[in-house]
Amino acid sequence: DGGITQSPKYLFRKEGQNVTLSCEQNLNHDAMYWYRQDPGQGLRLIYYSQIVNDFQKGDIAEGYSVSREKKESFPLTVTSAQKNPTAFYLCASSPYTSGGTKNIQYFGAGTRLSVL
Amino acid sequence: AQSVAQPEDQVNVAEGNPLTVKCTYSVSGNPYLFWYVQYPNRGLQFLLKYITGDNLVKGSYGFEAEFNKSQTSFHLKKPSALVSDSALYFCAVRDNSNYQLIWGAGTKLIIKP
Questions:
Q1: Residue range B97-113, pLDDT digits in tens
Q2: B66-84 burial code (b ≥16 CB/10 A, e <16)
Q3: Cα→Cα distances A11→A38, A82, B38, B87, Å
Q4: Does A16 lie at the interface with B, CB-CB under 8 angstroms?
Q5: Distance from CA of A51 to the nearest CA of B (A)
Q6: Three-state SS across A91-112?
Q7: Residues of chain B predicted below pLDDT 50
Q8: Distance from CA of A92 to the nearest CA of B (A)
């Protein structure tokens, strides 16, 4: 988990509320990712960003939003439109996204989001 | 469609015995394959990767994986299991159309003393 900090570790959301999950990296990586992990389903990509001020939707972007104003930071907002937000959220970063042999992703410790 | 399959939800092995965690894949173009491990309530840690070269890849913590092109498999192996190897293991393959990783559902490995 070194180099990528996710906060908070646990988060509770009330109905109709937007919540923001923080992800900061000090690895000087270009690319950052948000995944959702549900039991028995592996990791599903929500959003990813290859460069500052640019990001792309993943497989399950609906109900989520992101920003990438700084290289080190990639916060994820879970909006009220996401009707089933309870999950474990993982942030990752990597030095490259467009091929090469060094496209290894490094993960934070995760944020567990629950609905009150 | 590009995909990764981990056919076993759980693998049970006695400590000291060899272990194998299975992974098969389907991808267009050359496969870039990865194994990661996840301990409870933690993020994933990289174990090893196959890009090209030798079919037997060595990684962290004594793990290795064997790439088999004809069987489209990338099974994770260790000659002698430790109780501390108990964790959730994920196989992933790179989607060559967008360079993102496609993840298997994970295999829970339980090593019994």
A1: 888 899 999 999 999 99
A2: bbeeeebbbbbebeebeee
A3: 16, 15, 21, 24
A4: no
A5: 15
A6: EEEECCCCCCCCCCCEECCCEE
A7: none
A8: 9
